[in-house]
Amino acid sequence: MTENERPRDECGVFGLYRHPEAAQLTYFGLYALQHRGQESAGISVAREKDKIFSHKGMGLVHDIFTMDDLKKIEGGGGSAIGHVRYSTTGDSTLTNAQPFVVQHRGRAYAVAHNGNLVNAHILKSELEENGSIFQTTMDSEVFLHLFVKNLKQGNVLNAIQKVVAKLEGAYSFILLTCKGEVIGVKDPHGFRPLALGKLNGHYVLASETCAFDLVQADFVRELEPGEIVIINEDGVTSIMPDNPPQKKSLCIFEYIYFARPDSTIFGRNVYEMRKAHGRQLAREAHVDADFVMPFPDSGNYSAIGYAEESGIPFEMAMIRNHYVGRSFIQPTQSMRDFAVRVKLNPVRELIRNKEIIIIEDSIIRGTTAKTRVQALRNLGAKKVHMRISCPPHRFPCYYGIDFSTKGELVAAVKTEEELTRFLGLDSLHYLTIEGMLEASGVENPENNFCKACFDGSYPVDFDPNLSKQCMG
Amino acid sequence: MTENERPRDECGVFGLYRHPEAAQLTYFGLYALQHRGQESAGISVAREKDKIFSHKGMGLVHDIFTMDDLKKIEGGGGSAIGHVRYSTTGDSTLTNAQPFVVQHRGRAYAVAHNGNLVNAHILKSELEENGSIFQTTMDSEVFLHLFVKNLKQGNVLNAIQKVVAKLEGAYSFILLTCKGEVIGVKDPHGFRPLALGKLNGHYVLASETCAFDLVQADFVRELEPGEIVIINEDGVTSIMPDNPPQKKSLCIFEYIYFARPDSTIFGRNVYEMRKAHGRQLAREAHVDADFVMPFPDSGNYSAIGYAEESGIPFEMAMIRNHYVGRSFIQPTQSMRDFAVRVKLNPVRELIRNKEIIIIEDSIIRGTTAKTRVQALRNLGAKKVHMRISCPPHRFPCYYGIDFSTKGELVAAVKTEEELTRFLGLDSLHYLTIEGMLEASGVENPENNFCKACFDGSYPVDFDPNLSKQCMG
Amino acid sequence: MTENERPRDECGVFGLYRHPEAAQLTYFGLYALQHRGQESAGISVAREKDKIFSHKGMGLVHDIFTMDDLKKIEGGGGSAIGHVRYSTTGDSTLTNAQPFVVQHRGRAYAVAHNGNLVNAHILKSELEENGSIFQTTMDSEVFLHLFVKNLKQGNVLNAIQKVVAKLEGAYSFILLTCKGEVIGVKDPHGFRPLALGKLNGHYVLASETCAFDLVQADFVRELEPGEIVIINEDGVTSIMPDNPPQKKSLCIFEYIYFARPDSTIFGRNVYEMRKAHGRQLAREAHVDADFVMPFPDSGNYSAIGYAEESGIPFEMAMIRNHYVGRSFIQPTQSMRDFAVRVKLNPVRELIRNKEIIIIEDSIIRGTTAKTRVQALRNLGAKKVHMRISCPPHRFPCYYGIDFSTKGELVAAVKTEEELTRFLGLDSLHYLTIEGMLEASGVENPENNFCKACFDGSYPVDFDPNLSKQCMG
Amino acid sequence: MTENERPRDECGVFGLYRHPEAAQLTYFGLYALQHRGQESAGISVAREKDKIFSHKGMGLVHDIFTMDDLKKIEGGGGSAIGHVRYSTTGDSTLTNAQPFVVQHRGRAYAVAHNGNLVNAHILKSELEENGSIFQTTMDSEVFLHLFVKNLKQGNVLNAIQKVVAKLEGAYSFILLTCKGEVIGVKDPHGFRPLALGKLNGHYVLASETCAFDLVQADFVRELEPGEIVIINEDGVTSIMPDNPPQKKSLCIFEYIYFARPDSTIFGRNVYEMRKAHGRQLAREAHVDADFVMPFPDSGNYSAIGYAEESGIPFEMAMIRNHYVGRSFIQPTQSMRDFAVRVKLNPVRELIRNKEIIIIEDSIIRGTTAKTRVQALRNLGAKKVHMRISCPPHRFPCYYGIDFSTKGELVAAVKTEEELTRFLGLDSLHYLTIEGMLEASGVENPENNFCKACFDGSYPVDFDPNLSKQCMG
């Protein structure tokens, strides 16, 4: 699906315990997690008694940090955490960039958060009753207020456990104390990924394993739902929840769209999962055609799976312009759909007189897809079929993904038939929910995945009017 | 092949005759030709009596031009030419950015050039004998000196013909006069592509047809070797050379590497040519393996061809990080090969215990390939075979490509066996020259293509000590 | 005195009640107050129910705000406050830029502060005991915590009165509520200036009257020490303190150095006060000379006063280079004192064989003055006398000025005789404390001015180890 | 006079023969000459056989050059020349930035030019007849074409003499050869200043002596009209013209406006000359008043002279805002004349009920002066008299100054009486031509100065239709 329409994930997080190049390695970790958030990024380092040094900015990691910026916060042996963010609220200001850092009784704490608390508004009200003031709209600030209130004699673990007991929703936190402790927390349903790695003996936490690959850390394991992991001079201590929920609620959309294909999350490689979805799609909705092609780049792997399963040739028939900047001059009159066309150009000679199957990973508004299909028709495509590698999105997500920022969920308002006509297709098929779960290769998938955005069965209750106020 | 090692093409050119949005359309044309030069770009517009307005800058098209810049030069009905450049000399300054513009007797002329004159140093000496002074190191300046000297009573065509008679080497020029005439010139051997299109009745020239696609122009035809095309109020006038060479010398490396897959050059689509090379490679050097993969993105299409011909599955087993900036902080100690690894990460789960065939489009220095092969081995690849979709580069190009800027031609100094060991491969095969020509599907390919970089048979003589002084 | 050595004032503040161009006028107000703080600036606007919109940045006002930035926060009829800041602590980050904005029970409040609380560390400790967390090192955050804790049923005035009762030190606050109320508060000793004006019926507050001149507001009056002024739909309401201190403590250094000569503060025009100091200096320490000159620009007005009183000609014998940027390349070897010399160059022909009196407004470290005196000697000055238009600084300020950031107070460690030798002068005289007070033209000046930095008699007690922790 | 209205000088030039820090010292020299041109600047260095390295840019010296830029061109023992430029034509592009550099027969030459050739268009036509092409609209390019054509066997001096014989108009050139020779040339009438200095044994050339002060060079002497000075390994060689003109034509406006007050040009210090003009003005047009004030900064020194001669007190009653950026947001409705008022604010308390004499250095359009006079009236000034320290400008300059870029010469179209009313003054007086000459203190001033802009007596003939085509 296209950039403008794509769902917005809330964040990627990274943490590293005491390393001579902690800030720099965190910078590289964020580089690898950039796909999880392109709006702001930050790094916080605990290197001296009682203090935490931070650098944050708006934009991409490689624009925000210079070598000088890193040198200023790098301590030589400190611990660091980092964060990339894609605002899910309208409030995309530097104030909301993470890690969020506070001072309390002369000590500093920093937190980086991925997810969405569904009871943040309730917790915030309670805090304000007691005189707390807030500067941001972030869950992280709520977390830190609660944390500090529960902190006695510096017992960090105890305070975290008390806070976690109050939180409801989806979250993967990394907390950094000015003593250099790095603490990872995953919510009891395990909505968002968070993994533990090891880099030459130094423990590291990251949202996805692709960050370990880049910093050349070894993947140790993923955190369990509800697990708290404390990394300090005693190594790694793990605390499991007393009464875990019966069912996990792993976000299946991480596989379909968000996570990088080279990451392993929730126990399975993303690339392989996508191919499995493509194979399933071929089984569910075979059609004869000259070739299968993805709309780059998101449908690539499902398309390969579809081609393999169906035996229909695979082609990359739309060519990406590698030099498209983030903004460009808008054509004034003569050219329609320039923004769509400049990024990808179909190979005219491949398309003419062909029957084509397009694999997409999802359709949100559909206007870009419509333009692209029309372009193929204009070049003489005989038939154009589309296969979507996930079920239709019909329900909003309250656990950290904003599908609707830039428009309606087209699948919620149009029937498949209407959509086929709207997009100008010869046929259209969405992967079924059953097919998606079966293709996952997991036993009892119903007990493992959250698929609320497809069927509306929300695993954690919430007040739909309020629970999106604090996010990210 | 990787960015650092890649051969440098010299330029892309674009021109448009009288259009209300001539500057803006040229901007978009350059956008589509950006792959042919990322170092500087410029647009010149003839819109008023005797004057030419230009905007040039260093960097990418979308960084150089703002809407304001375009408005300043746009005239509403003027003619425009544009240029993107990748310096093949060390001299990458704004002074050398094109189009090159001069004043002569109150009239302005601008020229955009793609290619390399092998006798530029001789022509320049002769001019200096007569008191000419030069400000740049560009062939374009030599061309304009000669042009102006031959210009009597404003007969532009006559002057061009006299100049062309003196030029030796590879060139595709577009000349713009202050009267708004747009003139395309291709050298008699036809080394570099140049095509004619039509946009709502306005004629347009471009290095590649992908530029026509973006501005929604129709492709009319390619210029013939030696052809001069004059676009003015009388439409298009074509002048063919009196004594054309017996053989064409179309640069076959444009197919292999430079041109965009969605372009048609020298009569054939580039994507299809690359697939044909991949198929030929599979025929020449089959090997059993679990899958075929490209090193993205340049080997993609040959890899698809190889997979189809061999029946071995195709995988995209290296994942691109879409957010890598043009520069980033260099890791100081802990991480080797970061620059190589940050762009592409192999999918660990696909690689383990597999036999793999990698398709590359060429090897220049080989250090990046070596690092990538090693990465696959580290992940547990059982066997790694490499197939190169062109013959080994053993000779320098004097017609506009600089293979050696950043290092030696590894194929010129190592045997295939040495290279196999150097790269850490189980087997290595280069496409044969014969295979390459045969796969081209052209009759008498020997009489059509320049393949001097592979076999040293140079179609136009030159003095190797001097002929690279003026380039671009 | 020179830029590097100059004392750092903490801030300038500006506020405007409901105006169609509130943000823009605040921008211009800050422009006029820029001399009070060049490190960061910000504007906050209350224009919609419950919300406050802000734009802040590091640097100068004209670099921080674009028209787009202002448009984004401008509401058309909102109220606005603004702030310029010169960090007096080492912490010069965007986090500390003001106005400081918080959310509490769904309502936003913003505050802009000029001064220094001497009991901020005590107030902060008490707040932290009760679970408050802090993100900045600013007094403003302490103020807002206290304010919110005292806020019941939205009675803003009551809350402010309760907070003020706890604050000790120097402060001039402007508070903005999301309802659009603008509230000005001056501490009971009246250390820092704050004035009320009126712009076409709209009330405005500003640190100095020069801001009224620029926005073309009329000067109404200055706030009294201890006064709280509430501007809302009922107009202006003034609340005076119940038990005001017996003595005022107006910062006399505002006259000598900080305030702009075109401002009226504490009831008197700054230009005229400086001339009066110069006249007094001439009476206290006359010496024969060929001419009197200032070291531009700060000594200009005292020098004119000195020249008038003494009858000695006035010359501007050091010429300013108007094009010196904020930074420049440091000469590597050949040139000493370049940074000093580049800004001002003496007029060689005026200096030779002359006896000269230099008027300075203060000496902090003295190294720049030494260099300049040496330059005059090198050009052949026969005698060089210096007269300082204020008494020697011997004591630190705890009420908002940091004299010592970049070095020692030279007057505190050297006798006048030592200093005369150190600076290479023929004679040196500081204005006496008595002369300064007498020249002020105020009755009972001892009961009106704070002159602690000259004589150590601090009007408000403090703990010298801690009271500088929170500033600005 | 105000920035918008001020006449535009064309250039400042600087040159230094072989010094380990030649580029850096030239940078500082340009820093000191910045007032002579703020549009573009450049430095060229001859450090290696046959080559010249340059860095040029648009804007101010301190924005254009970074330490890295200087390091790239600095050679360690090379010669350097530099240039600052204020475009007198509409063509303010980087192409026209100087030094202008060319290659000829493998050797490079660079030239920096201050002045205007009145026969440039004729010389250019002749060159074009012989096939020369031009890229810029600068006199420097004409000079270099002629120079190269006259260059035989590398005899640089001979070539320069032949060129000079053809040039007509005002010029001060510095030429740099790739051998490191630095050659200064002043036109036979001596319109523009150019001086020789010495820095630790290294010879240096500069437009004004203030540049020597900054780089700590000693002033040796000014070049004579028509003199050619060659600096090379033999030291300094001077060649005087065979038939010098009977009369010098030193630009008297350099004293009045352009040159810095701390410079000595044409044998006299600028500051003292301005004071002498002020004194003369007091003698010519005395009026009783409370005080004399300049409109800063240009009238400062004449105002001091006027005050001294008249015995009327001197005040600096308009306060400059030192933080006004080069651009700022334009107020949309509420504030008129903001651009005028933001820079200078009158001191309200000084003005009220006073009779005031304003000293200005010239009036071009008069609109700013009108606004400022009105502001004084609004503050209650009883009477406002204006005295102008030069005669009225009634004629255009063809020797390098563009008075009329932004408007008409108000003095050419209005009588003194009309102007008095237009500006809202009680009285107005311009310095008389006779008074100006007499005040100069030079014998036979008629034979020494060009005063064509005041009386139309042009010392060098020209074709008024054409002679402004090539400038700078």
TrEMBL record, chains A, B, C, D:
GO biological process, any: purine nucleobase biosynthetic process
The keyword Cytoplasm is annotated on this UniProt entry: no
Transmembrane stretches, start-end: none
Coiled-coil ranges (or none): none
Record EC number: 2.4.2.14
UniProt binding sites for [4Fe-4S] cluster: 251, 397, 450, 453
Active site residues per record: 11
SUPFAM superfamilies, per the entry: N-terminal nucleophile aminohydrolases (Ntn hydrolases), PRTase-like
Pfam family, any one: GATase_6
PANTHER family, A to Z: AMIDOPHOSPHORIBOSYLTRANSFERASE
NCBIfam families on file: purF
Protein name, per record: Amidophosphoribosyltransferase
Lineage, broadest ranks: Bacteria, Pseudomonadati, Thermodesulfobacteriota, Desulfobacteria, Desulfobacterales
